[in-house]
Write a structure and sequence with these properties.
This protein is α/β, with parallel strands linked by helices. The chain has a domain of about 180 residues: P-loop containing nucleotide triphosphate hydrolases (Rossmann fold), CATH 3.40.50.300. Helices cover about 25% and strands about 20% of the residues. The strands form two sheets. Strands 6-7-8-3-9-10 form a six-stranded mixed β-sheet, sandwiched between helices. A four-stranded antiparallel β-sheet has the order 2-1-4-5. α7 links the parallel β7 and β8. α5 packs across α6. The chain is globular, with a radius of gyration of 19 Å. The structure holds adenosine-5'-triphosphate. The site of adenosine-5'-triphosphate (ATP) has 11 residues, from α2.
């Protein structure tokens, strides 16, 4: 839990294993029109996990994330969040989201602190007023991303990487239990990627569960507990970083790769496929 006293989860009292599951997808399909973009996705994310989602451009990574967030249509399967059906989750602020390729508008005059304060809105309501505790949480969120000294700086004058960190701080200000980030390192140079990785490491230490869509595994790799490969709208691999590294030759996720059906076979469970038959938890069957 980030920066607050522990909250009681709706599934408190259940055995630890069950209450540890924050996201549970079973054979879920998501899309925007008639045809699903992501099909047959089965994925379980437990408390404290740091999961990277990788795959070629257009393979469905963002669609999968938006599906978990309820931002597109689920046409099949089930989605369970914190032990309740996804569409029945009342406290949406438990899911934090840093959207893709989103930097802050240069035409809006707002300070970093003001932008991060908007992250409190799900907690206080649109007409609510920030109280001292809210301001403290905003200040701590800026501190976590290393921008405490920029609180009063106009965001339009910050670099792209700093703006991404403001957006992460905004998501953190909502005190989410799980943070879904769509390419937080996109457009961030190598030096700043390490700064961002350090920021994420601090979040890991605070016990925040994270699902991170990324093309740049490099700087994040040391933090990850799992890697999920999405290709052609399907989850093609789900396993530990070690197993992913062992399979790297077979499971490409670079921009040029698309389908690898000769190397990656569909699994009836839709969970995991590949030369090594890897279970959901990364262990070999
Ligand atoms: N709002 C939308 N309406 C209709 N189709 C969409 C929408 N957003 C994405 N798509 C389509 O869904 C498919 C998967 O896109 P998605 O953005 O999920 O892929 P991605 O893996 O996140 O790609 P990238 O790495 O380029 O961000 C693409 O064919 C895309 O054109």
């Amino acid at each position: 839990m980030l920066m607050s006293a522990p909250r009681t989860s709706p599934d408190a009292g259940l055995p630890a294993a069950a209450s540890d599951v924050v996201i549970d997808l079973r054979r879920a399909s998501f899309g925007y029109g008639e045809r699903p973009t992501v099909t047959d996705a089965t994925l379980t994310v437990r408390r404290g996990e740091i999961v990277a989602v990788v795959g070629p451009n257009g393979s469905g990574k963002s669609t999968l994330m938006k599906g978990i967030l309820g931002l597109n249509e689920r046409t099949d399967g089930t989605l369970t969040l914190f032990g309740v059906p996804g569409d029945e989750l009342r406290d949406r602020a438990r899911l934090g989201y840093v959207p893709q390729r989103h930097t802050l508008s240069t035409s809006v005059r707002a300070t970093a602190e003001e932008i991060v304060s908007t992250g409190r809105l799900p907690r206080i309501g649109w007409l609510g007023r920030l109280r001292a505790t809210d301001r403290q949480i905003v200040a701590r969120s800026l501190d976590v991303v290393g921008l405490a000294d920029r609180a009063a700086t106009e965001v339009s004058t910050l670099s792209g990487g700093q703006q991404r960190r403001v957006l992460i701080a905004r998501a953190l200000a909502g005190q989410p239990d799980v943070l879904i980030m769509d390419e937080p390192t996109a457009g961030v140079d190598a030096a700043n990627q390490h700064v961002l990785a350090d920021v994420l490491e601090r979040l890991v230490e605070r016990g925040v569960t994270m699902v991170i869509v990324t093309h740049e595994l490099g700087a994040l790799e040391r933090l990850l507990t799992r890697i999920v490969v999405v290709d052609g709208g399907r989850i093609r691999f789900d396993g530990t970083p070690e197993r992913y590294a062992a399979q790297r030759g077979a499971v490409h996720h670079d921009h040029d790769s698309h389908h690898h059906d000769d190397e990656l076979r569909p699994h009836p469970s839709g969970v995991t496929v590949g030369p090594l038959d890897v279970r959901h938890d990364g262990r070999r069957r």
